[in-house]
Write a structure and sequence with these properties.
Elements (H helix, E strand, L loop, with lengths): L5 H15 L4 H49 L11
Length: 84
């Protein structure tokens, strides 16, 4: 979890209780959790949007590449050699 060990987490919680107070700490933690969830959702939306844009942009290039590769991958037909 962000490289924070159990000891560091306990120290942070003790400091939070001292400065914020035990009454407001659950409210602040709940608000922070909601903010984190919203941030995570927003980043996923952005990630999916960028991925879709990349796929839309590269689709014509991929199709063109397939069209070019198809004739190249076919074996050329050779006519039988005539011995003269």
């Amino acid at each position: 979890m962000f490289g924070i060990g159990v000891t560091e987490l306990i120290v942070i919680l003790v400091i939070a209780v001292i400065f914020i107070g035990p009454k407001k700490l659950p409210e602040i933690a709940k608000a922070a959790g909601k903010a984190f969830a919203e941030f995570k959702k927003a980043t996923e939306d952005i990630k999916n949007s960028v991925k879709e844009d990349i796929e839309k942009t590269t689709a014509p290039i991929t199709e063109l590449s397939k069209e070019v590769q198809a004739p190249l991958s076919q074996k050329p037909q050779t006519s039988p050699k005539k011995d003269t």
